[in-house]
Structure formats: structure tokens, C-alpha cells
Design brief:
By secondary structure, the chain is of the alpha+beta class. 23% of the residues lie in helices and 26% in strands. A hairpin with a 5-residue loop joins strand 13 and strand 14.
Length: 506
């Protein structure tokens, strides 16, 4: 389901025709944002004509499921004439669909304690339970190939940015250094000393954030939870933003994480925190399986394995003969593992998988814990910049960049090494990238880089884990003129190789 946000537009006929064809539901808000839109400050005649024309134009599209009065139009200061009028017109001209006064409202929340208020992602999410999440997430940087379309190459050689980095600041959502600094607290997986570091870590953090909240919501499906919209899928302008697909149509790594989270048949884990686990604690996670399709899934196999810092198994569980009815999400089991040695848990990882009765893979997820090693000085700095103090003027911005550049450790980059073998099979309009882990330990965060960004090119998956000996084929589409010569494949613990070095013998 897509939310056509009230800070954007009433979408086009083409957009709705495509959604009709693809079976994508749409919640259409009117372009009314951060109100209230009370008379006489709003011309109600203009508003009346806009709503009437839009409803008449779109009401016969089956993909349209709900009308909305706009985005974050808070408590009204008077008679609420504007949104009352919008609701009356929607009910009069299209009585078949519900009208939602504004979002958030009536059971939906927007959680900006994460990012804007600077609170920890896991803690702030669990402190704000809701039936429906209407907005949540953090921004990230565009891929280098997209960034070079709106700033010159020499701008990406300068780190950290300053108030004089006007080209970059003009392409950030709040036109300020705080855009970058606020994201670094969630993406401190290692020292951040350049734009490439920041791009990779910010997209990683964005994916982690989208996944955590989505899975908390999905775990309560059909009981206390009804859904979520992450903020957001696509961009209104080129630059640093919350989108997972940028202005030029290029997916970030976070796009693939969001796609993996939303698989109709899926397996996932819920837990209380990502960092701060210590020896002596017991790590606990609930393992869930989802079958949000119209057909039952019988005899499935669910597995969960906890790995230590040396990628040794700390614990594992396997559940055979799992049956999931149509439109079912349920908890399959729980892991409760005592953490005994500090050396085993900096970092540690959890892999969960869902397979059909015959062993065919359906879905998997890989999670990392204690993957951020922040100094006490950095933690104190972050605690001092919360809520209304989450701003970074002058020397505080310089201090922030220095602290994140001096992070002493990158735990995920210390995992034992493995090796990937891979090849490309190409046909007339597409093909597959086949990747195998030929080492003796799991490959963590297998990422395909350099895949073409052209509009007629599409890669079906990216950023995943592979067990020893496991292989995966990634389907792709590529136009006739698209070159795959620049494609490389690597992982956090596997050397990145080009096709000539990484091709698997057939």
C-alpha cells in the first residue's frame, strides 16, 4: 500500500492505472500539510474545487482505498472548516470510501522521537506502541552515482561538510549540517571519515530502522496491530532524504531491506535492543513466521541460529512441520541464550530462515547486535543532544564530526573471512547473478555493487547473508545498452571481486 503524502501531489491518472494493474492499494491525501487549514486563512472556494475535481477524476480506480485530509494537520484552532469541507466533499462524491481527517490521527502515530529527537531507535519505538504506524524512519545519503548528478565530484572529496558546503546542504532536507549529524548516531558502525563511509552506514542504519519497527508491527498482525507505512519510498527532489529509491529511480541498500521485510511469506525476529548487550545478560528473541497470502503453507521449516564474534554457533533452533494458514502471522518459538563471554558478543549475529517442506528457501533475515562501538564521550555527547537540544551550531558540529571520525572500532568488519564465487548469466532482456559462499563461515551482508542505474535495469535482491556452501541466484533486468562490466560482489567478510576474478567454474 502506498500513501500519496499530503506534502506532495494528488497523483496522476497514469499512476493510478499502474496501481490498478499491479494490485497496489493507495491512500490519497490532499496536498494540505502542517495545518490546521482554518478559514479565513484558507480560501475554501479553491479547496472545494480542488477536492471535487480530484474525487471525480479518481473515484473509479479500484486501487484507491481511502481519502485523507492531508499530512500532520494538527488540532484545529476553530471550527476546522477546511478539513470538514474536504470530508464532506469526499463523502458526497465518493461514499464508498472512508475519509481519514489527517495522518496521524485516529489510531495512527508518526514516531519522530527517533531521528528528530535523537532517541535510540529500538528504545523509542518500543516506548510508542500503536495500532498503526503512519510514519517512521531516518534519512540516508544517495549512492555516489546519483550524488554526482547534483554536486561536483570535488565536493565528495571534502569531509566533513561545513556551513560553506552549500551545494550539499541545498540537497539535504533541512538545508543544514544537522541532517548528516543526526543520522550518524544511528549509523556509527565504524569511523565515519568520508562521504563513502557515510553513504554506506547511513543506508545501513536506514534499513535497520525500517526493519525494526516493521517487524514489531507485523508480529502483532491480526491482534493488536494493523499495519505500517515507513517514510518513505520515493523522492520529491535529488538529495539526502528518507526515500529508499532516490529522485533518479536508483535504489539504496535500504530499498532491499524494506523489500525483504515486506515479503508476503516471511520469517523474522523481534527483540528489545540492538546494542548494549553485555556478558551476564540473557539474549532473548521471539521468532515469527508470516504467510500473508491466500494459500496455506504446510510443513514448513523454520530455523534460527545465533552466531558469536568468530561466527561460531552459540545456539540454534529448528522447527519442523510448521503450518501457517492463509493470512497468518504467528510466533513459532523463542531463543533465550545466556551471554557468557564479552569476546563472543562484539558483535554477535542472528540468522533466521523459512523453507518449504522440500527444503526450498522461501525467506531469511540476518541481524547484528553490538555492531556499534561508541566511546563514553560519544555516548555522553549524544545524550546531551536530545529533543529540543538536538541541534548542532558552530563548534558542536565540528565536535560531532570529530567524535564520529574517531570511533575506534568497527565490529562487523572484524568477522572471520570467507570467499564468494559468482558468475553472470545474461539473456536478451535480463538474466541472473549467481553467488555461492565457498568458505567455511557465513558470508555476512553480501552486496552487489556497480549494477547499472538506468531506468530499464532492475536487480531483484541485494544485501543478504549466505551460509557456508549456500548459493543464491539474483534475477535481473537490463536493457540492451546496459553494461554489466562494472559489477562487483563482496561481503563484510569476503573480498570484493569483479567477474574476471570471481567467476565460478561451471
Amino acid at each position: 500500500m502506498l500513501r500519496a503524502w499530503g506534502g506532495g501531489i494528488v497523483e496522476s491518472d497514469l499512476f493510478y492505472r499502474l496501481c490498478d494493474e499491479k494490485g497496489i492499494m493507495v491512500y490519497q491525501e490532499f496536498p494540505l500539510c502542517w495545518g490546521p487549514i482554518d478559514s479565513p486563512h484558507t480560501d475554501l472556494g479553491v479547496l472545494d474545487r480542488q477536492v471535487a475535481r480530484s474525487v471525480k477524476r479518481l473515484r473509479n480506480h479500484p486501487s484507491l482505498v481511502m481519502w485523507g485530509g492531508g499530512n500532520e494537520n494538527g488540532p484545529h484552532g476553530g471550527a476546522d472548516e477546511g478539513l470538514f469541507l474536504v470530508g464532506r466533499r469526499c463523502r458526497l462524491l465518493d461514499p464508498s470510501r472512508p475519509y481519514h481527517r489527517t495522518d496521524p490521527w485516529g489510531g495512527s502515530v508518526h514516531n519522530w522521537h527517533v531521528y528528530h529527537f535523537g532517541e535510540p531507535m529500538d528504545e523509542a519505538t518500543l516506548a510508542m506502541p500503536s495500532v498503526f504506524y503512519g510514519e517512521y524512519g531516518i534519512p540516508s545519503m544517495t549512492n555516489r552515482s546519483s550524488t554526482l548528478k547534483y554536486v561536483p565530484a570535488d565536493a565528495l572529496e571534502q569531509w566533513p561538510p561545513t556551513e560553506e558546503s552549500r551545494g550539499l546542504l541545498a540537497h539535504s532536507h533541512q538545508f543544514s549540517l544537522k541532517d548528516t549529524i543526526k543520522v550518524m548516531r544511528y549509523g556509527a558502525y565504524g569511523p565515519i571519515r568520508g562521504w563513502d563511509d557515510y553513504t554506506y552506514y547511513s543506508q545501513t542504519a536506514q534499513g535497520d530502522t525500517l526493519r525494526f519497527t516493521a517487524e514489531v508491527q507485523r508480529a502483532g498482525a491480526n491482534r493488536a496491530k494493523s499495519g505500517f507505512w515507513y517514510y518513505k519510498f520515493s523522492d520529491l527532489f535529488p538529495g539526502h532524504s528518507w526515500a529508499v529509491v532516490d529522485y533518479y529511480g536508483t535504489p539504496k541498500l535500504s530499498y532491499y531491506r524494506a523489500m525483504q521485510v515486506c515479503r508476503p511469506r516471511n520469517v523474522f525476529a523481534t527483540y528489545t535492543k540492538m546494542n548494549g548487550w553485555t556478558a551476564g545478560e540473557t539474549f532473548e528473541a521471539a521468532i515469527h513466521a508470516a504467510n500473508e497470502t491466500r494459500e496455506p503453507l504446510a510443513g514448513a521449516i523454520v530455523a534460527a541460529t545465533l552466531y558469536g564474534s568468530g561466527l561460531q554457533e552459540l545456539a540454534s533452533r529448528r522447527y519442523d512441520g510448521v503450518t501457517l494458514e492463509a493470512n497468518a502471522v504467528r510466533e513459532i518459538g523463542r531463543l533465550a541464550v545466556p551471554l557468557t563471554e564479552t569476546s563472543e558478543i562484539e558483535p554477535f549475529l542472528l540468522a533466521v530462515s523459512l523453507r518449504a517442506a522440500d527444503g526450498t528457501p522461501i525467506a531469511d533475515q540476518w541481524y547484528w547486535f553490538n555492531a556499534q562501538k561508541k566511546s563514553e564521550e560519544l555516548l555522553a555527547f549524544e545524550r546531551s543532544h536530545r529533543h529540543n537540544d538536538n541541534e548542532y551550531p558552530g563548534d558542536e558540529a565540528r565536535q560531532a564530526f570529530e567524535l564520529y571520525a574517531n570511533i575506534a572500532d568497527a565490529p562487523l568488519h572484524r568477522l572471520p573471512a570467507t570467499r564468494l564465487a559468482w558468475s553472470i548469466e545474461r539473456g536478451a532482456a535480463g538474466g541472473a547473478i549467481r553467488i555461492r559462499n565457498v568458505g567455511e563461515v557465513p558470508a555476512v551482508r553480501v552486496v552487489v555493487d556497480g549494477f547499472p542505474d538506468d531506468w530499464d535495469c532492475y536487480l531483484a535482491d541485494n544485501d543478504f547473508g549466505l551460509l557456508p556452501g549456500e548459493a543464491r541466484a539474483l534475477a535481473f533486468e537490463a536493457g540492451d545498452g546496459a553494461s554489466l562490466d562494472g559489477v562487483t560482489v563482496g561481503a563484510l567478510n569476503a573480498e570484493r571481486t569483479a567477474a574476471s576474478a570471481g567467476t565460478e567454474a561451471k
